[in-house]
Amino acid sequence: MSGTSAEMPCDQVEVVLRKAGRTKIRYPAQVITDDGTVVTVRAPWSADGVRDFGFVRFEPGDVFTEHYWRDRWYAVKEVRTSAGVLKGWYCDVTRPAVRDGATLTVEDLDLDLWCSADGETVLRLDEDEFAESGLAQHDPEAASKALAALDHLERLARTKASLTPAPPRP
Length: 170
Fold this sequence. Notes:
Elements: E1 12-19, E2 22-34, E3 38-44, E4 51-52, E5 57-58, E6 63-69, E7 74-80, E8 86-94, E9 98-100, E10 103-116, E11 122-125, H1 127-133, H2 135-138, H3 140-158
Parallel strand pairs: 1-10
Antiparallel strand pairs: 1-2, 2-3, 3-6, 4-5, 6-7, 7-8, 8-10, 9-10, 10-11
C-alpha cells in the first residue's frame, strides 16, 4: 500500500519511532481513522513504569490518542488518564509519517512541545538536543522545516487553537 493514498485502516498498526537512524521505540496501536493524510491511533502508555517530566507524568493506564500527518512535520499526542481526564498534548516534531500496511513509521527530529489541558502551560522542549543533533549542518532544509513546525505548534497552543485534526464528517 502507498503511504500517500487513502487506505482502509486495519485494526492495528505498529508505531515505529525512529531517531538518528535507529528505532527508539515501537508499540502496537489501534487505528481510529486513516483518511490518506492523517492517521489517528490510540495506544496505552507503552513504557515500563512512570515517566515524570516535572510538568506532566506519563504512567501505566494513560491513553494516548496520536495524530500523524503524511504532509506535516509533526505528530500530536493527546494524553488522558485511565479515567479519561485530559492531561494535555505532547507534540513531536518529526518528518512526515509513512504508513506501510500495518506499520506506521515516523522519524523524531528531537524538538517537542507540551501543552497542558488548560492551555496555560506551553513548553518548547529539547531544543538543546536538536542543536546537538547536527541536522542543521547535514540537512538544513529538514532543520528549517522542523523549526517551522515547532513555531507553528507553539502558535496554535498559545492561541488555544486546536492541535488535533477536526473529526471526520459523516
